[in-house]
Design brief:
The structure is a homodimer. By secondary structure, chain A is an alpha+beta fold. Chain A has helices spanning 51-56, 75-79, 82-96, 101-104, 107-113, 138-149, 225-230, 244-250, 273-276, 332-339, 368-371, and strands at residues 27-32, 39-44, 47-50, 114-116, 120-123, 131-134, 165-167, 173-175, 180-181, 184-187, 196-199, 203-204, 207-213, 232-239, 242-243, 264-266, 271-272, 280-281, 301-302, 305-311, 318-324, 351-353, 379-380, 386-387, 395-403, 408-419. The termini of chain A are far apart.
Amino acid sequence: MHPNDPSLRSFVEGASDSGFPIQNLPYGVFSTASDSRPRVGVAIGDYVLDLAVIEECGLMPRMAAQTVFRQSSLNALMASGGYSWSIVRKHISQLLRHDNPKLRDDAVLRKRALVPMSSARMHLPVAVSGYTDFYSSREHATNVGTMFRGKDAALNENWLWIPIGYNGRASTVVVSGTPVRRPKGQIKGPDFPAPIHAPSRRLDIELEMGAVVGVNTALGSTLTVEQAQGAIFGFTLLNDWSARDIQQWEYVPLGPFQGKAFATSIGAWVVTAEALEPFRVEGPRQEPAPLDYLKQAGAHNFDISLEVELIPGGGAPTIISRSNFRGMYWSTAQQIAHHASSGCAMRVGDLIGSGTISGPDKGSYGSLLELSWGGKEPIRLADGSTRTFLEDGDRVTIRGFCQGDGYRIGLGEVTGEITPAA
Amino acid sequence: MHPNDPSLRSFVEGASDSGFPIQNLPYGVFSTASDSRPRVGVAIGDYVLDLAVIEECGLMPRMAAQTVFRQSSLNALMASGGYSWSIVRKHISQLLRHDNPKLRDDAVLRKRALVPMSSARMHLPVAVSGYTDFYSSREHATNVGTMFRGKDAALNENWLWIPIGYNGRASTVVVSGTPVRRPKGQIKGPDFPAPIHAPSRRLDIELEMGAVVGVNTALGSTLTVEQAQGAIFGFTLLNDWSARDIQQWEYVPLGPFQGKAFATSIGAWVVTAEALEPFRVEGPRQEPAPLDYLKQAGAHNFDISLEVELIPGGGAPTIISRSNFRGMYWSTAQQIAHHASSGCAMRVGDLIGSGTISGPDKGSYGSLLELSWGGKEPIRLADGSTRTFLEDGDRVTIRGFCQGDGYRIGLGEVTGEITPAA
């Protein structure tokens, strides 16, 4: 049976009703108090299946000359190739089925291999080779363009032709839960005689999905959209924290730099592209028609429901946005095809940010910049307080899931709390 | 005696009259026909001193738990720390002195450890963690700004306050000698109804220096300008190949992307910051005075003479530009201090491009864009042909050196030949 089959069930209690049923099997890197070596695991219900243990017990075929599971990142697993991605997932699926006694009835092995999630410390799942951030929600680009450059210049002429993106900073990608320190930077308000160097006053989020590239390409070679789709190992939630005041002063003419270099948070779990197959949908109609190298046939978007929660220090949670990944104008596959179009080498571990995922109406915007319309329309939180941008002590959590027929593919969450500037 | 002492001489014949005298000792990574394992070497005259062999013969103290020399990049050596950078250089200097018989009189060891440069295959010296490109020549920024945005908007308001830079693509950094394939990309001339996807027609060079960062900093921490200076392991020549037509259509609002993602060439030799100490000079006066976090006392520029040679396929060489690194408005130390100012983590192996090094007059411009003034004023080559931008078969070589008292510190060269689009 295919690992995506909706009728599959696991013997792991509660898995079916969680975001991590047997149809999901997302990968992460974890360690425990009793074994501090980071290794690769798979989420199933409230447990992490320790793949290093499974491999060492001979229950997993070797995918490469070296172990791909007793590793501090998913990169070795990804580098083993797309064929082995499927084989490994199939093995894990079989091992966790309700009707397979091998692990189910081996109490000693189960105790070793199934680690309660509450006792797993999650690490950055990917050794990020390059971090590239796109800008592919038409609604977001229009909103931001309107605020930064006025309504007439909102959507630059190139936007409908190019999946616009820029290189981000790989060294600052952190795993969910890592505190985010408010950055200092150069800020110059329109009425300032000169810039000042001060903590950001317009600290923001960006609700995004991150795609993880699982293949290497040679410098000078390119990818079709279909090949680019096949190069995606999986997806994770991504929050591209942004200091709007630093960004606004620095970004002309070479783009965002220190305004986005202090932290980019990603989820601890990478949901495989294979698990998301049933949720592929067509994106918005593209008009003008893309140039040949960006033409795509069929469904290359994904129906992933997303929400953003904000909890003020010690306060009550408010869902400040509900959006969906399906509305992106440019698909991830198109982004990657464009990325490689100059002959740019793609690398195992490249992280591709989708760009902020804003929907058509205010409740679906993916940044505070848009939600508070440049700070002019504060949003109200459940505890009665208001926000334009983030305050110290605020915690922001992004969650996402795909709704299947009787099951949910959870993307987990990406969360971070703002700590004061140094 | 300090390794920089001008009176030092090496027993290696011809070293004193070359760009690689005993005062230089630049690091590279090489392999040979008889030993294909890349390892770390030092250039001395026309030879490469094999540091892996030197270490394995017990002539070099261990700098770390693991060997830092039998490695395919300089990263392990750099990660061993600034103190060991000096110790290692001192040891090498002593070993190569004319009055030290240890290596000089050991014919067997000399044959093993001193490899003729002509039989060494050079590799990319650094595993590039991140590639960041700045834009710090006032003359270049003014020239390009004038052509792209008109004279009045040439130097954007932020330029005199911020060392403007952007994240480049680390995966496309290649070692000198690697052919450069003409990229394809989206191009839209002002009179085109829609963009086309075609080989670049405005393929260009950028004469730059690359600084290699040799330390890791923690996310959330910053660097003073002095600390940033100390974080530089060394410098190498850099050619930031650029497709101007692709760049012009894509760069608003998020900066250069595919127009600079197809190749960035660096020299095979990294000259240490220590060897360049005698050539520190003050840069141009900075007015307005930089904000406190960018204030620097004393000399943070380097007096490095640079030239660019163009050889058409099968033709004669022409020096198309002569410039000097000393004229840069923002110093490398200021660039790195700014880079870390948001709390951005710096990594061993980060490559920091200076930005195109243009001087005040036409013969000193660092790009064809400027030399041919946007293609309007073709330059004449020695063989009578003309160029606006690069043609297939053109070879471009950048060379550089510092003139000492009776010796020269050579930066070597960075060269690349243009091959036709795929």
